[in-house]
Specification:
The complex is a heterodimer. Chain A has helices spanning about 1-15, 55-60, 60-65, 80-85, 105-115, 130-140, 150-160, 175-190, and strands spanning about 20-25, 25-30, 35, 50, 70-75, 90-95, 120-125, 145. By secondary structure, chain A is an alpha/beta fold. In chain A, strands 2-1-8-7-6-5-4-3 form an eight-stranded mixed beta sheet. In chain A, helix 4 (about 80-85) links the parallel strand 5 and strand 6 (about 90-95). Chain A is globular and about 65 Å long. Chain B is α+β, with helices and mostly antiparallel strands. Chain B has a five-stranded antiparallel beta sheet with strand order 1-2-5-4-13. In chain B, strands 3-14-15-12-11 form a five-stranded antiparallel beta sheet. The radius of gyration of chain B is 23 Å and the shape is globular. Classes of the chains: A alpha/beta, B alpha+beta. Chains A and B meet through helix 5, helix 6 and helix 8 of A and helix 1, helix 6 and helix 9 of B.
Chain lengths: ~190, ~550
Amino acid sequence: MAREQVKRKKGGESAPLARGALVRGGVRVMDDPWLVIEDDAEAPDGADIVVSVARFKAEREALLARKGRLGVMVAPADAVEEIGADAQQFAVVMVQFPVFRDGRGFTSAQLLRHRYQYRGELRAVGDVLEDQLFFMLRSGFDAFEILGGDPLAVYARAARVFSFGYQPTGDGFVPVHRLRARRALERAAE
Amino acid sequence: MYRYDEFDEALVRERVAQFGGQVARRLSGELTEDQFKPLRLMNGVYLQLHAYMLRIAIPYGQLSSRQLRQLAFIARTYDKGYGHFTTRQNLQFNWPALKDVPDILDKLADVEMHCIQTSGNCIRNVTADHFAGAAADEAEDPRVWSEIIRQWSTFHPEFSYLPRKFKIAVTGASADRAAIETHDIGIRLRKDDAGALKFDIYVGGGQGRTPFLAPLIKADLDAEDLLSYLTAALRIYNRYGRRDNLFKARIKILVSALGAEEFARQTEEEWLQIRDGDLKLPDEEIARIRAYFTPPAFVELPARSEVFEKAKAENDAFARWARLNVHAHKVPGYAIATISLKPIGGVPGDATDGQMELVADLAERFSFDEVRVTHEQNLVLPHVKKDDLFTLWTLLKGLDLATPNAGLISDIIACPGLDYCDLANARSINIAQAISEKFADLDRQEKIGELKIKISGCINACGHHHVGHIGILGVDKHGEEFYQILLGGRADEHSRLAKISGKGMAGDAVPSAIERIVTRYLELRQSEQERFIDAFERVGAAPFEEALHGA
């Protein structure tokens, strides 16, 4: 029953997802161990697999019990609340950007990192463009499947496009208002 | 006014460098027009009917004379010597060459300006009451909060690819001059009985093809919670706003589909999870921003200016301008002056480089270096001594900037329409010009009194036709320009949507149709004090529809 729903949802949503070259933590990764499996495909024993949110919900116990690491694929319309309690069980979470215009994945990333304290690999897949990559970094992504161009060059350009950020997103950037307070203290101390 | 610090400056310069690289990649052919489109749109560059158009952000409509002079320089150097002030308090240049855009952005950055988020499906330039800091009816200066919102929304990682564009307006006065209920989010600042600052948040207003006035979603929000609450509302929208249909993607459709109560409940639930986090505004940061908006050094003056009174008594034309274009200031002896960009027969909102430079000079000389842009496409000098008004008027007259028509029938809002815009179905500017000329007689205009005509050249409603006392909507009817008349809208603190009245008409029939409505109004009004909109609300649409279309 649950499978049927998954299929319809997938069929209605988008064409097959484009897969780009993997850059993780600023390093090009050639041997990506993760196997993304369709909802109706068998999960190969011992392999590191990535399943949809719907399949995870439907087969949670079996998937957690099997050998091999587990990851989950979050589509734009998926509610990350549904996997939040299990976030620590995943070794990778892939968040889909089927088209660049669809920005729901930015919110999914923020919720995973902050509300559910997910600390593992958070990978952006799909229409991952140079010009969005900075926002993805700020939203908590640390891995990217980059389409087109020299992936490391694209990453390097995108990662340093801005030196500051106004918003506290927990990405390591100290928000500008805190930097201001810090500078004010330094000036007062001089 | 706000001044950039090292952080603001660095971000704007980095954006210029980024866009310069993108333009170079486009010009070299590395990027196709399709790939370039979303990038240029994030930076205010549109491809219009004849050329690229560049939209420059004027945060909450505030300019210094230095900034306005730079805009004049850009108009003269890179455009055809004029610019167009828009209903979102921005400025558009209609003829820049793409290769010049990075240079223009550099010139803008030199005066702390940019084109960031003036297009695209992101949080757009925030707008505010153009009388901010000057109006007699103000409880709190909306610019402080507009600037805080500007910073929070700039390059927002989570909210730069929303289902659709997102517009925020702020007012701190009892009269609503920012039309907050027609925005995605409207914010009203007020003081409660104990004198504490509270925010009322309206969500889900908008015009376009399906107009809505925003319902009140959250009352009495504390100032420190502003950004966490906005984040919660935007997050609900980013997740659940429709993305399958461009015309149903604005937040107004989500709020309407869920119902205001349910949208408020979901937002509240999200907000309670984040309100005590990093988004809570520290008092020091509020104080730091507030300090930029401390009132200028007003001098102590008597409320009555003998110079002003004498000039009015001696010069009827000046007296008329003073009656119509001068407004009450909160400080005795000062006044707010509206500089009309609606000369009879002119293009609403257009200003030449020479006019911009003159206004810059006058702002420096008479108004503590401050200029405002209004959403009604005029300029404002917010802090003028009454003693100086006559000299100001004399100088404005020299460049056709002293038309005494603020709020009158020739003070028309019009979108650029089919003369420029790629989306338009019909021209707007020529209709505005024809109406303005038909009612050129200033005595008659003043006798008619306040009457707000708003014209859009297509259903997207950039000309605010849904909230015009008389709205005019241009449509395409079998390849011909056709115009529908709407009646009874308003965008103030008693906002209401106008209703379409009967069949449309050809453009050359519009001025006499307006004439018939006005004649009917003059016949039925109970006194000269009863404005058109008051009379409309008293008698309803029927008498006007009869005048318009016959019994």
